[in-house]
Amino acid sequence: MAKHDMPLLHPQDVPAALGLLSRLPVPVNGTLALERGAQSAWAWPLAGLVIAAIPSIAALALIWIGLPAPLAAVSFLTVQILITGALHEDGLADCADGFWGGYDRVRRLEIMKDSHIGAYGVIAIGLSLAARLLALTTVLTADLAGPYSTVIPLMAIGMISRLPMVILMHLLPNARGDGLAQSVGRPPISIVCIATALTLVLGFALLGMQLLPILIWTGAAMGLLALVAKRKIAGQTGDVLGASQQISEIIGLFVVASLLT
After folding, report:
1. Is residue 149 over pLDDT 80?
2. Residue 247 pLDDT
3. Which one, of 146, 25, 142, lies nearest residue 73 by Cα?
4. In this structure, what DSSP letter does residue 199 have?
5. What is the phi/psi pair of residue 236, to 5°?
6. DSSP state string for 104-123
7. Contact yes or no for 142/148 (Cβ under 8 A)
């Protein structure tokens, strides 16, 4: 099927997004998913919502039965990483190693493709886990002090943090001729607009005006990441997209934690 003959949206886009971004056993029409490619990127925020819902509910259940908030936070991160297969953490580590471990564009891309992790990657993952653990502990502790539900903001952050991947795929050229981002393709502006509108509507429904500071800080961070990626490797890769999710998730958790204290 030619790209221009495809419907703008397709029901199979949601399971395709879940199959791409997680290890959840969802039935995916592989042939259709391959044909649609980046056309299904509008559903990535929805996939993030589902992915975040599972560890959010698990963490809240542990809080309700009396588990301390720090242990519930560790459980949240563990479940989430098991669901995603550490896909985004791997991207963050590869970006850290490549961006600051290589002396030119070609060498940086080589390092990012290498399956071995370096010192910069270890530090990046360690900081990401520590930052999220501290913020999650604050959010889960706040839930003990009142009726504020942790499930809703954590699900919203999971959704919002997948939107920058769609936007960066459209704005930045692919930096290499292979890899996951290259195989998916470049989402058209119509798909970016749908993903953005969906995230804004659902985000406002879940968070209200608390959505605004998350969007502002995330937008600023993604602008900076885009500039760095453009300068370091002249575009984006799947690793850059993974790093964007991690950074956006950390920002979202920090904003929610600050609003609860």
Report:
1. no
2. 98
3. 142
4. H
5. -125, 160
6. SHHHHHHHHH-SS--HHHHH
7. yes
